[in-house]
TrEMBL record:
<dbReference type="GO" id="GO:0005778">
    <property type="term" value="C:peroxisomal membrane"/>
</dbReference>
<keyword id="KW-1133">Transmembrane helix</keyword>
<comment type="function">
    <text>Involved in peroxisomal proliferation. Promotes peroxisomal duplication, aggregation or elongation without fission.</text>
</comment>
<keyword id="KW-0576">Peroxisome</keyword>
<keyword id="KW-0812">Transmembrane</keyword>
<keyword id="KW-0962">Peroxisome biogenesis</keyword>
<comment type="similarity">
    <text>Belongs to the peroxin-11 family.</text>
</comment>
<dbReference type="Pfam" id="PF05648">
    <property type="entry name" value="PEX11"/>
</dbReference>
<protein>
    <recommendedName>
        <fullName>Peroxisomal membrane protein 11B</fullName>
    </recommendedName>
</protein>
<keyword id="KW-0472">Membrane</keyword>
<dbReference type="GO" id="GO:0044375">
    <property type="term" value="P:regulation of peroxisome size"/>
</dbReference>
<dbReference type="GO" id="GO:0016559">
    <property type="term" value="P:peroxisome fission"/>
</dbReference>
<dbReference type="InterPro" id="IPR008733">
    <property type="entry name" value="PEX11"/>
</dbReference>
<feature type="transmembrane region" description="Helical">
    <location>
        <begin position="83"/>
        <end position="100"/>
    </location>
</feature>
<dbReference type="GO" id="GO:0042802">
    <property type="term" value="F:identical protein binding"/>
</dbReference>
<comment type="subunit">
    <text>Homooligomer. Interacts with ARC5 and FIS1B on peroxisomes.</text>
</comment>
<feature type="transmembrane region" description="Helical">
    <location>
        <begin position="120"/>
        <end position="143"/>
    </location>
</feature>
Length: 227
């Protein structure tokens, strides 16, 4: 119990930890609003207010987040040319997303012209979706390489290195889980971004948006939870 509490404290001390918690509030309240809209309008209004407040607070909390893209690129100098290329495109899209998301927040709270909100939202969602495509591609490539490396290790005949082999396999499995969580989160966020870029009955349905938001939040929760 104490270990869980300690991990929760560490998790909530992180910027991403708080973001995933508030994102959970945001999309749970979206689903609650949809469920209660016709049967309990008063409660539905409260849920909608909670959703809006959560969304705005997340934008405020992410102030300066667009600069993390530069740091991510700086920390991966040893990558292959292919992954350097994917990293540049992915992080460029994410930087556009966060930068215009800041402007969207300012327009929604009245600091900038409210008429700019729709344009800022579109540009932000476009950058987000663009970046997530390349993050997904990079993770899928690494997942494939991990599977191939595991097969090669399992087919190895060197019994004298059995302990080392098992350790390597466990590392590959651990990395695979984290990358699967990343793919799940990025696909979910891509759906949310597409709902803004090109509104359609599937992506814009409340159930689709609600589930996508929770998948993204909980996959991020898993990835950021202290080991």
């Amino acid at each position: 119990m104490n270990d869980t509490v300690d991990k929760l404290v560490i998790f909530l001390a992180k910027r991403d930890g708080i973001d995933k918690l508030v994102k959970t509030f945001q999309y749970v309240s979206k689903l609650v609003h949809w469920h209660l809209e016709t049967s309990h309008p008063d409660k539905a209004t409260r849920a909608k207010n909670w959703e809006v407040a959560s969304g705005i607070s997340r934008k405020a909390f992410r102030t300066g987040r667009f600069l993390t893209g530069f740091n991510a690129l700086r920390r991966s100098p040893g990558s292959t040319p292919t992954f350097q290329f994917l990293a540049v495109l992915a992080n460029a899209g994410e930087m556009v997303y966060f930068f215009f998301d800041h402007l969207l927040w300012l327009s929604r709270i009245g600091t900038l012209d409210a008429k700019l909100a729709k344009k800022m939202s579109f540009i932000s969602a476009f950058g987000e979706s663009f970046g997530y495509i390349f993050f997904i591609v990079a993770d899928v490539i690494m997942l494939k390489r991990g599977i191939e490396a595991e097969r090669k290790l399992r087919s190895s005949k060197e019994d004298s290195k059995e302990d080392s082999k098992e350790e390597s396999i466990n590392k590959i499995k651990s990395d695979r889980i984290m990358r699967l969580m990343a793919v799940a989160a990025n696909v979910a966020d891509l759906i949310i971004g597409l709902a803004e870029i090109e509104p359609n009955p599937f992506c814009n349905h409340t159930i689709t948006l609600g589930i996508s938001g929770l998948v993204s939040a909980w996959a991020g929760w898993y990835r950021n939870w202290p080991s």
